[in-house]
Each structure stands twice: as C-alpha cells, then as structure tokens.
Automatic annotation (TrEMBL):
<dbReference type="GO" id="GO:0005634">
    <property type="term" value="C:nucleus"/>
</dbReference>
<protein>
    <recommendedName>
        <fullName>AT-hook motif nuclear-localized protein</fullName>
    </recommendedName>
</protein>
<comment type="function">
    <text>Transcription factor that specifically binds AT-rich DNA sequences related to the nuclear matrix attachment regions (MARs).</text>
</comment>
<dbReference type="InterPro" id="IPR005175">
    <property type="entry name" value="PPC_dom"/>
</dbReference>
<feature type="domain" description="PPC">
    <location>
        <begin position="57"/>
        <end position="194"/>
    </location>
</feature>
<keyword id="KW-0804">Transcription</keyword>
<feature type="region of interest" description="Disordered">
    <location>
        <begin position="1"/>
        <end position="54"/>
    </location>
</feature>
<keyword id="KW-0238">DNA-binding</keyword>
<keyword id="KW-0805">Transcription regulation</keyword>
<dbReference type="GO" id="GO:0003680">
    <property type="term" value="F:minor groove of adenine-thymine-rich DNA binding"/>
</dbReference>
<dbReference type="Pfam" id="PF03479">
    <property type="entry name" value="PCC"/>
</dbReference>
<keyword id="KW-0539">Nucleus</keyword>
<dbReference type="InterPro" id="IPR014476">
    <property type="entry name" value="AHL15-29"/>
</dbReference>
Length: 212
C-alpha cells in the first residue's frame, strides 16, 4: 500500500511542503493594529496663561496715597476722588497731624473739640464719595496719640492738616449702591424677584451711583 496516497498526499509531495502549504501564510508578517499608549517623546503642551486686560467696574483697586506736609488731608482725598471719578475708602493711615477738630458723640450736644499741637495718627478710616453722592455719605474717623500718651478720637470736622508726611492705605471703587435699611417686606420681595431675573445676588440696588 502507498502510505503517501492513503494520507491524502500526492505523490512526490514531501511533508515539509505540506506543512508550508497548511500554515496559511508566511511567518513574521505585522498586523495593522495601532500601538497603545502615548507615542515616545510626546508631552502635554502647556496651556497659554489667562491675562485679564480689563477690570470690571465693581473691582476694588488698592492705593498707597502720600500726603505732603502742611496739606489738608481731607481736601486732598476729596479732590482725588472727584478727579478720578471714584469713591475712596481709607483703610489705615500713619503720620502726624496738627490742630485737629473732631466731633465726639459722647460729649454734650455732640460738640466739636479742637486739639492743639501735634498728634500721632493711630487709626484713620472712612469713605469719601465724589458727586453725585447723598449728603452725609462721606466721613473720616481718626484716633490720635498725644505727647503725654493720651488717646483721643472722633469724627474729623473741617481741615485735617498734616504736620509731616502722611501715608494712607486706601481702596477705590467706581460704583456705589445706596440702600436704606431695614428693607420693607415688599421691597425685599421685589429685590429677590429682580435678582432671580437678572442673575445677581439678593440686594438689588435701590439707587446706584456710578462715578465715571
């Protein structure tokens, strides 16, 4: 019996040729799949920085204001607020002043007290608004230390003369919202409705002063 024929092989065909034909293709061929992962040498590109080129009208700006000797501090702040068209909030101050007029609410009939001599500024705060601002919305409070260590303070009335360089730390703003408190229930409901409609917080302004 012919064994090659019985195994389904044609005559003259060797076993190696049969194995090559049954393999289905040449070994070592590459597939079309893409390799997983990040390509070698690639990195995340840095994002460009965000640069704000314009401030919002409601943004606060910080200032360091220096007042020269023998200059009225109150008048200087008022002129600065009017010319810049911005409200000025005085946060602190340092330096010396002379001949200060202050109003002390605890004194009888809120009398004005005149302090003669030089005094060191311990605290200076208040707000000065340019026109159009409601009357009484501006004012400065001051606390002073005398030569004997006494401390006195009150609301500044009239000029406040600097007897040396005075440095003020201040913040300015363009818009001021004037509201009367306490709010009535109807006003509060209307303010909340307007806030929901416009997408702003509760406390919709009754009157808004824009210093621009």
């Amino acid at each position: 019996m012919d064994f090659n024929y019985s195994l389904g092989l044609s005559r003259g065909e060797s076993d190696s040729d049969a194995g090559a034909s049954s393999g289905g293709g040449a070994p070592g061929t590459s597939s079309n799949r893409r390799p997983r992962g990040r390509p070698p040498g690639s990195k995340n590109k840095p994002k460009p920085p965000i640069i704000v080129t314009r401030d919002t009208p409601n943004a606060l700006r910080s200032h360091v204001l220096e007042v020269s000797t023998d200059v009225d501090i109150m008048e200087s702040i008022s002129n600065y607020a009017r010319r810049r068209g911005r409200g000025v909030c005085i946060l602190s101050g340092s330096g010396t002043v002379a001949n200060v007029n202050i109003r002390q609410p605890a004194s009888p009939a809120a009398t004005v007290v005149t302090l003669h001599g030089r005094f060191e500024i311990l605290s200076l705060s208040g707000t000065v608004l340019p026109p159009p601002a409601p009357p009484g919305s501006s004012g400065i409070s001051i606390f002073l230390s005398g030569g004997q260590g006494q401390v006195v303070g009150g609301s500044v009335v009239g000029p406040l003369m600097a007897s040396g360089p005075v440095v003020l730390m201040a913040a300015s703003f363009a818009n001021a919202v004037f509201e009367r408190l306490p709010l009535e229930e109807e006003d509060a409901a209307a303010a909340a409705a307007n806030a929901n409609a416009s997408g702003v917080g509760v406390g919709t302004p009754t009157t808004q002063y824009e210093f621009e």
